[in-house]
Amino acid sequence: MFQKIMDAINGCCAGDCKKKIRGTAVLMKKNVLDLTDLTALIHDRWDEFLGQRVSLQLISAVNSEPSENDLRGKLGKPAYLEKWSTAATSLAAGETTFEVTFDWDEEIGVPGALLIKNNHHSEFYLKTVTLEDVPGLGRVHFVCKSWIYHAEHYSKPRIFFANKTYLPQETPAPLRKYREEELFQLRGNREGELKELDRVYDYDVYNDLGSSKKGPEYFRPVLGGSSEHPYPRRGRTGRKKDDPNTESRLPLLKSLNIYVPRDERFSHLKMADVLAYGLKTVAQVAKNGLDIFADATPNEFDSFDDVLKLYEGGIKLPSVPPLLGSIRKNMPLEFLAEIFRSDGELFFEFPKPQVIQDNHSAWRTDEEFGREMLAGVNPVIIRRLEEFPPKSKLDRELYGDQNSKITGEHIQNSLDGLTIDEAIRNNRMFILDHHDALMPYLRRINTTSTKTYATRTLLFLKDDGTLKPLAIELSWPHEKGDEYGFNSEVYTPAEHGVESSIWQLAKAFVGVNDSGYHQLISHWLHTHAVIEPFVIATNRHLSVLHPIYKLLEPHFRDTMNINALARQILINAGGFLELTVYPSKYAMEMSSSLYRSWDFTEQALPEDLKKRGVAVDDPNSPHGVRLLIEDYPYAVDGLEIWSAIKEWVRDYCFIYYKTDEMVQNDTEIQSWWKELREEGHGDLKDAPWWPKMQTRQELIESCTIIIWVGSALHAAVNFGQYPYAGYLLNRPTISRRFMPRQGSPEYEELESNPDKFFLETITAQLQTLLGISLIEILSRHSSDEVYLGQRDNPEWTADKEPLEAFKKFGRKLEVIQDRMFDMNKDVSLKNRVGPVKVPYTLLVPTSEAGLTGRGIPNSVSI
């Protein structure tokens, strides 16, 4: 191929070939949020006046420098960005296009890369460079997407490769050394504190959640690096340690400055959106001591109507002048200052969550309670019951007999004429089981302001496809000690009298369990935390020239940044999560214990469904599995998306890997997978389930899982948070008192005013405001979101076959999306909409910006 190109070049140059190559560079100058940095603009123009310009040099992909022993590609003469000082620059941050003219050297032949030196005072974001009319080639495009700082900050000039794709062994010889050196730079030397302009991707344990300086109540165990507290690795910052085990923490007001590689930071649009939606408000609330109110709970809703006022005109904030005054004093933006008023005005009005838009009470029905296990914000837990009574997997030596105490008498008359054995054999019995996950921590959790239970919920699959709750078991540790087992009470459905109120409370305790598990495990651990090591390993070991890098890169956008912010203000000691979710200070430690059972291969949707017993292998079914709950919206839509992703990944990988041996001989893939297993998920490195990465099928399955987790799985468990949990009565996050005993004063309270008792049992007013403020932010799409089936640059590769395969993927997603809308109109599919009249759209691929309850972003980006 290269010989043909060279022949074309030589033939052209024998005639009147142009000696100049015109190009364009698209970049964004340094900015502060949505505004161009005017100080930087002045400095840069002065630099231009002094001759300190931005230079670019082409690197040949076919010819090497004669003096280079390591076959580095021949360098062209420097060219400079033109008219920097005279080009119009908008006050609003945005892209600017500059021209650049290269003196063509026929020995360059094929431009395979370019070097760039920024001699300006300020950094800029280089998006693309495009050459036009290159002899023998035509258009050559470089996808850069990187911040370029002053040249003195780099040991070598920055390099960017043309958008060609090469396996390591197929890389043109003049580019190989550059490819290796770029990866070496990204790996760093594992020394010192990392700064904003560094481009280093490295690993560390979660040793930055607690603070020994703030006192013993802020101590948190190190997560990761031990058998006691295993955990995925996070991005290294290199900050100094407060003590041998704990990394120092940034002041809360500097949270936005936490280190992640500069190119992993939010775009200016995303950052502006995040701030506008109040993320800094969350940080200020945490900073100003809301933990003192978490225990005292001085603020109560007096009625359900009081809760509705949040969405129908606002409410007055509790009178806490020192807290609110401090918040307002530190607000940098007037919009954010409006969120927490200190002048007695109405509190900021929240959008009405979808779950109460049609009907204010439909959420309380048993049908909706069961439906949300299939189509709500946490549809990944329910499993088929295979034996009765339900059995525990907890260690008997440590926890005694933890098997369920639900008996046949509790449920026999609710099985539509079937016996229990018949219902199990006919795949009609299901369970939402949080008992084993919570029981080892429950005794400690209940020493905090939380007062809760470990729950098991049995359900029956009716003929119309809906789930009917049969019984709820509320369990608590035995008073003599863990080894003595547990105590429990079993509650069954009731529609009238105080028994109905008791049943509503039992469902609320299930909601509390499920909300905490969802936020800590389904959402944080199983998407955010487990995907970060893949981001780090990919950047350390797969060159931008590598086909798998190009495949996976869109699915890592913003993940390191949002996770770093989470460590600062959400999952840290005293952070937002501990304030608003029932495990309190034991939250992250509990998530560590559940990481032990994480299995990468079971993150594949078909494997997950089979593991939970809600699907079985069936080669005659479209996706290879048959659902045992046919109207299971998450699974139905998820299998469509999963299969589309897998087909796209298969088509793509087959373009570059013709045999299994090509996978085995790919040095970058092998080092990537080895480090991912041994360091990124090092605490599970000896697990037998890790793919060996020796075949194309293993590569395809692994990449499909990575894309699924980063895109569709995260969308399914994240963007429904506000639609369903924005009305906290539907999904309370905390319980503050136990179930009342008959004959007690509390029981009389419940009889006299069941709604008030319900409100005083679940999340308090101030915590409710904090909780829904947070999930409103998390449930919004930013204005620059890129969705599954989309790319931020249509020229992400110069190879035609993958571009055609990607278009095919996009067309398939459009068909799937239309099918989802059609199913939501089918009245026979009762779980698609439910009593609350909320169509299941969480796996609809596309969305507009904002709070939409739909859309699959490419990555874990919020």
From TrEMBL:
InterPro entries in alphabetical order: LipOase (IPR000907), LipOase_C (IPR013819), LipOase_C_sf (IPR036226), LipOase_CS (IPR020834), LipOase_Fe_BS (IPR020833), LipOase_plant (IPR001246), Lipoxy_PLAT/LH2 (IPR042057), Lipoxygenase_dom_3 (IPR027433)
Its EC number(s): 1.13.11.-
Broad class of where this protein is predominantly found: cytoplasm
Superkingdom of this protein's organism: Eukaryota
Record SUPFAM superfamilies: Lipase/lipooxygenase domain (PLAT/LH2 domain), Lipoxigenase
Cofactor section: Fe cation
Alphabetized GO MF terms: iron ion binding; oxidoreductase activity, acting on single donors with incorporation of molecular oxygen, incorporation of two atoms of oxygen
Keywords noted in UniProt: Cytoplasm, Dioxygenase, Fatty acid biosynthesis, Fatty acid metabolism, Iron, Lipid biosynthesis, Lipid metabolism, Metal-binding, Oxidoreductase, Oxylipin biosynthesis
Subcellular location: Cytoplasm
One annotated Gene Ontology cellular component of this protein: cytoplasm
GO BP term, example: fatty acid biosynthetic process
Domain PLAT: 34-162
Stretches the record annotates as Disordered: 217-248
Biological function: Plant lipoxygenase may be involved in a number of diverse aspects of plant physiology including growth and development, pest resistance, and senescence or responses to wounding.
Entry similarity comment: Belongs to the lipoxygenase family.
Name of this protein: Lipoxygenase
Top-level taxonomy: Eukaryota, Viridiplantae, Streptophyta, Embryophyta, Tracheophyta
